[in-house]
Amino acid sequence: MAKEMKADAPKAVPAEQTPAPTGRTMGVFDDVDRFMDTVFERGWMRPFRWEHPLWERIAGGGEGRIPRVDLLERDSDVLLRAELPGVQRRDLDVSVTDATVTIRGATASEKRAEEGAYFRSEIARGAFSRTVSLPAKVDADKADARFADGILEITLPKVKEARRRRIEVR
């Protein structure tokens, strides 16, 4: 019987030699590492920009848009410029508080009989609204707005106590 057990016992096989780790990451981590390098190289914030297609899907398929603005604080006033291509003056509504400006408007949705199927449709149409916080308190009653060539320009005089002034450092 003892001889039978020896015959069934597994044979000893020498273990494979494994190279010592070199400090590099392993297979799947290499892939992730390369992917991250690619993403950061292209600009990792790109998916978070408002014009990225991801936002278009979240916001409802491209209906409407968020106007781009420039906001400038000057010594005695704040200047806000908003880019509103395709908007008519009559379709704009601007309201001002001492701390915010809200721009509302709409672009007409054109209904054209087009032959063929759209391959791409990127022109935003519909209603929009944007509220911008101001860097200083302003006198809303003295605000002045002008609109020309798709650019809305609003000049907002600062209230007396919010005006910037230089002081001498001694």
Please report the total strand number as a whole number. Answer: 7
Mean pLDDT: 76
What spatial order of strands do you see in the largest sheet? 1-2-7-6
Q: Please identify the top-level CATH class of the largest domain.
A: Mainly Beta
Number of domains: 2
| Structural class label | alpha+beta
Spans where pLDDT lies below 50 across 5 or more residues: 20-25, 49-63
Query: Remind me, CATH topology of the largest domain?
Result: Immunoglobulin-like
CATH architecture of the largest domain: Sandwich
The total count of helices amounts to 3
- Main sheet specs: 4 strands, antiparallel
Q: Tell me the radius of gyration.
A: 32 Å
| H-E order | HHHEEEEEEE
Given the C-alpha coordinates, what overall shape results? flat
Amount of beta strand = 25-35%
Sum up the structure in keywords.
Immunoglobulin-like; alpha+beta; 4-stranded antiparallel beta sheet; 3-stranded antiparallel beta sheet; 170 residues; HSP20-like_chaperone; CS_dom; single chain; 2 domains; Small_HSP; 7 strands
How is this structure best described in words?
The protein is α+β, with helices and mostly antiparallel strands. The chain has two domains: 24-62, no CATH class; 64-110 and 125-162, Immunoglobulin-like (Sandwich), CATH 2.60.40.790. It contains three helices and seven strands, in the order H-H-H-E-E-E-E-E-E-E. It has helices at 2-8, 27-42, 53-58, and strands at residues 68-73, 77-83, 93-96, 100-107, 126-133, 144-148, 151-157. The strands form two sheets. Strands 1-2-7-6 form a four-stranded antiparallel sheet, with no helix packed on it. It has a three-stranded antiparallel sheet with strand order 3-4-5, with no helix packed on it. The longest helix has 16 residues, at 27-42. The termini are far apart. Residues 1-26 are annotated as: Disordered. InterPro entries: A-crystallin/Hsp20_dom, CS_dom, HSP20-like_chaperone, Small_HSP. Residues 64-168 form the CS domain. Pfam families: HSP20 (PF00011).
